[in-house]
Design brief:
Helix content: 25-40%
Protein name: Nuclear transport factor 2 family protein
Shape: globular
Largest sheet: 6 strands, mixed
Strand order of the largest sheet: 2-1-6-5-4-3
InterPro entries: FrzH/put_lumazine-bd, NTF2-like_dom_sf
Strand content: over 45%
Radius of gyration: 14 Å
Distance between the termini: 29 Å
Number of helices: 3
CATH topology: Nuclear Transport Factor 2, Chain: A
Number of domains: 1
Length: about 120
């Protein structure tokens, strides 16, 4: 389903905030776009990892995640109705791997929130 322009702009903003907050290690900004209880799943060095919002933010605060500016490219949007959407985003720094994020979002009380993140590191 095609995303209407209003939702597309709001979704783009959420995706940008997600990437920028991780890059800047800004826990408050990241928390603003993640729903409490959101999970991130990824394969890292062949092992499945599942991180809760709290774990991910804790790793960020400890300097284990983020801290380097990356370029961001939104690959596509998809939505069902006006309250459910996915965004595929790629983020790449000057050095290191490319991160591909599949963000699952719900529009809750008028605001888009990330409820889940599937991450590919490559």
């Amino acid at each position: 389903m095609e995303v209407n322009i209003e939702n597309e702009e709001a979704l783009k903003t959420v995706a940008q905030q997600f990437i920028e907050s991780v890059d800047a290690q800004n826990a408050e900004q990241l928390q603003a776009v993640l729903l409490d209880g959101a999970q991130q799943h990824l394969l890292y060095q062949g092992k499945h990892m599942m991180l809760t919002t709290e774990q991910y933010i804790g790793m960020m605060k400890a300097g284990k995640v983020g801290g380097k500016k990356r370029s961001m490219e939104i690959i596509n949007f998809d939505s069902v109705g006006e309250t459910t959407a996915t965004i595929k985003v790629k983020a790449k720094g000057e050095a290191g791997p490319t991160f591909t994020y599949y963000l699952s979002l719900l529009k809750i009380e008028g605001n888009w929130k990330i409820v889940g993140v599937l991450t590919h590191v490559g």
